[in-house]
């Protein structure tokens, strides 16, 4: 599956952005879909994920500000980001994960840059 992320950009602190990730195929076969981010000089970290049953999971740093959702009919995963902070600046990657007996199988999008700055 190919993943195309979009929606990044430059926003002032306190602003909002919505990221979208469109998959080339159905996302219903994936157990978990979501978003990770990587800031310069830092490791990639989990931002938010959502399971096939609709259960979300958030990192502590974004809890209460970000909302992850999925639209299976559109093969799309969203990340609504509110009350953005400069420390949210990073490249955001969408991810789909299939859990198999041999371990997780991950697919990654190309990343979209989010810059929070005044």
Protein model, in words:
The protein is an all-beta fold and 118 residues long. The chain has strands spanning 3-6, 9-11, 17-23, 32-38, 45-51, 56-58, 66-71, 76-81, 90-100, 103-108, 112-116. Strands 2, 4, 5, 6, 9, 10 and 11 form a seven-stranded mixed sheet that branches. Strands 1-3-8-7 form a four-stranded antiparallel sheet, with no helix packed on it. The chain is globular and about 45 Å long. It starts with a strand and ends with a strand. The model has no long low-confidence stretch (mean pLDDT 95).
Report the helical percentage.
under 10%
Whole-number mean pLDDT: 95
Tell the overall outline: globular
**β content, as a range?**
over 45%
Pairing-aware structural class of the strands and helices? Answer: mainly beta
Provide the succession of SSEs. EEEEEEEEEEE
What is the CA-atom radius of gyration, in angstroms?
Answer: 14 Å
> What is the terminal-to-terminal distance?
37 Å
Provide the low-confidence segments as ranges.
Answer: none
Reported for the largest beta sheet, the result is: 7 strands, mixed
Beta strand count:
11
| SS field, number of helical segments | 0
How would you summarize this macromolecular structure in one to three sentences?
The protein is an all-beta fold.
